[in-house]
Amino acid sequence: MPNDPFVDVGDLPSLGPLRYLDVRDQAADHVPNAVRVPLDEWDAAAKAADTGFAKTAYWDGALSALGVDPTVTRRCL
User: Fold this and answer.
1) DSSP-assigned states of every residue in 53-76
2) pLDDT by residue (tens digit) across 10-45?
3) CA 39, CA 22: separation in Å to the nearest integer?
4) pLDDT at 1
5) Which of 13, 17, 58, 76 has its CA 20 to 30 A from that of 5?
6) Which of 59, 66, 60 is nearest to 21 (CA)?
7) Residues 1 and 7: beta-carbon distance below 8 Å
Protein backbone atom coordinates (compact mmCIF):
# COMPACT_ATOMS: atom_id res chain seq x y z
CA MET A 1 0.00 0.00 0.00
CA PRO A 2 2.81 2.57 0.59
CA ASN A 3 3.23 3.20 -3.17
CA ASP A 4 -0.38 2.65 -4.15
CA PRO A 5 -1.96 5.92 -5.34
CA PHE A 6 -5.39 4.71 -4.21
CA VAL A 7 -6.23 4.67 -0.53
CA ASP A 8 -9.38 3.48 1.18
CA VAL A 9 -10.82 6.08 3.54
CA GLY A 10 -10.58 3.62 6.39
CA ASP A 11 -6.81 3.37 5.87
CA LEU A 12 -6.16 7.11 6.29
CA PRO A 13 -5.41 6.96 10.04
CA SER A 14 -2.72 4.32 9.43
CA LEU A 15 -0.80 6.53 6.99
CA GLY A 16 0.55 8.88 9.64
CA PRO A 17 0.95 12.59 8.90
CA LEU A 18 -0.74 13.56 5.64
CA ARG A 19 -0.30 16.61 3.43
CA TYR A 20 -2.76 17.03 0.57
CA LEU A 21 -1.34 18.84 -2.45
CA ASP A 22 -3.90 20.65 -4.60
CA VAL A 23 -2.46 20.88 -8.12
CA ARG A 24 -5.66 21.96 -9.81
CA ASP A 25 -6.25 25.29 -11.52
CA GLN A 26 -6.60 28.29 -9.18
CA ALA A 27 -10.21 28.65 -10.36
CA ALA A 28 -11.10 25.27 -8.83
CA ASP A 29 -12.56 25.21 -5.34
CA HIS A 30 -9.73 24.91 -2.84
CA VAL A 31 -9.71 21.67 -0.90
CA PRO A 32 -9.82 22.36 2.86
CA ASN A 33 -6.48 21.68 4.57
CA ALA A 34 -4.74 21.14 1.23
CA VAL A 35 -1.69 23.12 0.13
CA ARG A 36 -1.96 24.79 -3.26
CA VAL A 37 0.99 23.79 -5.47
CA PRO A 38 2.34 26.55 -7.73
CA LEU A 39 1.97 24.28 -10.75
CA ASP A 40 2.92 26.86 -13.41
CA GLU A 41 6.12 27.68 -11.51
CA TRP A 42 6.93 24.02 -11.03
CA ASP A 43 6.31 23.28 -14.71
CA ALA A 44 8.74 26.03 -15.71
CA ALA A 45 11.30 24.83 -13.14
CA ALA A 46 11.04 21.24 -14.38
CA LYS A 47 11.92 22.39 -17.90
CA ALA A 48 14.83 24.64 -16.87
CA ALA A 49 18.35 23.23 -16.98
CA ASP A 50 19.35 24.56 -13.56
CA THR A 51 16.24 23.29 -11.74
CA GLY A 52 15.11 20.27 -13.78
CA PHE A 53 13.99 17.05 -12.15
CA ALA A 54 17.60 15.84 -11.89
CA LYS A 55 18.26 18.68 -9.41
CA THR A 56 16.81 16.95 -6.37
CA ALA A 57 18.00 19.62 -3.93
CA TYR A 58 15.78 22.17 -5.70
CA TRP A 59 12.73 19.88 -5.51
CA ASP A 60 13.43 18.95 -1.89
CA GLY A 61 13.34 22.69 -1.14
CA ALA A 62 10.17 23.23 -3.18
CA LEU A 63 8.37 20.45 -1.31
CA SER A 64 9.74 21.61 2.03
CA ALA A 65 8.32 25.10 1.35
CA LEU A 66 4.89 23.46 1.17
CA GLY A 67 5.40 21.69 4.49
CA VAL A 68 6.24 18.33 2.97
CA ASP A 69 9.19 16.33 4.25
CA PRO A 70 10.05 12.62 4.24
CA THR A 71 7.86 12.00 7.32
CA VAL A 72 4.70 13.21 5.55
CA THR A 73 2.60 11.03 3.27
CA ARG A 74 1.61 12.90 0.10
CA ARG A 75 -1.51 12.51 -2.02
CA CYS A 76 -2.20 14.73 -5.02
CA LEU A 77 -5.75 15.84 -5.74
Assistant:
1) TT-HHHHHHHHHHTT--TTSEEEE
2) 777 777 777 788 888 776 777 777 888 888 899 999
3) 9
4) 46
5) 58
6) 66
7) yes
